[in-house]
Specification:
There is one protein chain. The chain is α+β, with helices and mostly antiparallel strands. It is built from 12 helices and 15 strands. A hairpin with a 5-residue loop joins strand 14 and strand 15. Keywords: Cytoplasm, Initiation factor, Protein biosynthesis, RNA-binding. It comes from Entomortierella parvispora. Component of the eukaryotic translation initiation factor 3 (eIF-3) complex.
Amino acid sequence: MSSFILPKVSDTVSGWGPAGLSAQFADIPYAPYSKADKLGRIADWSAPEGTQGKDNRGGAGDQRGGRAGFRNFRDNYVPFGSNAANAFNYQHTEDEASFSVVDNRSGAQKKITGFKSASGQRGGRGGFRQQGGQQRGTFQRLGANRGGFGGARQQQGGQRGGRRGYNNWRDFDRNQRVRDASVKVGAEWNMLEEIEFSRLNKLQFEVNDPEDIALHGAVATYDKAYDRVNTKQEKILQQVDRERDNVTTSEDPILSNLASQPAAENEQRVFATDSIISVLMTASRSVYPWDIVINRTADKVVFDTREGSQVDYVSVNENSSDPPMDTGDKDNINSPSALSLEATYINTNFAAQVVNGEQVVDLANPNPFYGAEEESVPLVGYRYRKFDLSTIEEEEISLFVRTEVDAVVKSASGEDSYITLKALNEFDTRAQGAGGAMEWRQKLDSQRGAVVATEMKNNSCKLARWVVQSMLAGADHLKLGFVSRTNPKDPARHAILGTQICRPKEFASQMNLQITNGWGIVKTVVDLALKLPEGKYVLVKDPNKPVIRLYSVPKDTFEEAEEENEEAEAETA
């Protein structure tokens, strides 16, 4: 019989545990252990099928729910030393994955209640996005609380807000859309300022009634027969052979003449068009990119647009939660660029069609952009107006703006009142980017308010610009037309389904548009431009963030592109 030799045992009299470490265990790491640690189970037979061995920490393996970031005690038991980063801890999850439970019960499924959040868990709400001199009137200077424009450079993460997993369930799709800038930022461009939209919304400034400088052009009388147009008696939109150019500020002969005149003492002058001013006043509502060229000289500032600038075109569903997307297909008739061209074409023809060309009211001066010998002269009135942007008596800031009116109507007293004509357009309610719009041929007559409310939501920036332009021109009314494609697949043929007249101030109130806030933005940009040294600058709206940036550019920027466009036009002529 073999003998048994008792191994050497080290006893600790003063405490619990081994007295020392033997030589055979010298290079093996020690796992922390306490009497309170639980060893756990090798296999969990009570867990539902498909969940054994899942680490339930709010990720993709979470099958039964529970709060994200917490372990499910049924799914994962960690042995001793769970709080230590020890590679020698026992991991039972790999073994449990080989087990399966045979269920002989009926195939009735358990009823699961609660909605499913975006993170794949039931019973939770997912989460929320978070954003982040002597004066006259109520003007609030930008940077008064944060030390100027320099403090505006903060990240704009999650600006849309909303509950994840509920209303904004397609946020993942919208975040992947990267738009191109309206102008390429050159390597020699120097960024001077960056202004966030959240700060623009806090600006306020009140402007007194403007002063009329000159009246040019001619306007026709609005044809009231179009007030009776409806979906059952629609009118085909006709193509009118009258071009309507968008002449920029520096090429306007009237504004150029005013700029050449000597300024009064302590007067600083700013020149722009109503289109440019409306873009600035509604900048915080804009989503698509745009840019404005600023030319600074000794005593004046000129706001210009480039040839083919986005400012001169009409956007479609810019503010929709799911706006039109550019797929790169040139034949896509519902891309943002194609819809913009279509909307601009509709507005030009609508304004020319709904007036009576035989009843024309000539203004004090002829059209400054067309000679008397030309056969086709657009019927449009230009009102050159002067706005006072001064905040202190010692310094006077005058803003000269060219505004436009489209027609006149007879008031109850028999006097002529100016109106502006604009058209909303419907392309295809089933196409991507329709913004949940109703079919106008079915709902326009019976649910006009719902149709207008949807357009306010999807085209907030465009409608705000039209209201601002009407108020700048001093128009008494804004006439809106509802124009739709005769065939959703044909972008060249349209029909007028109805019209609606509204007062600009009342419409602005319905849209929650604060004119004082718009003037505060204009005042801030003008003050910033007047402090710049002489040169050329570009104000650019970021294509993907609610931010506008001011760049200093060389004086010959954009000149080559303009010369190429002029040569191309000369060749085609």
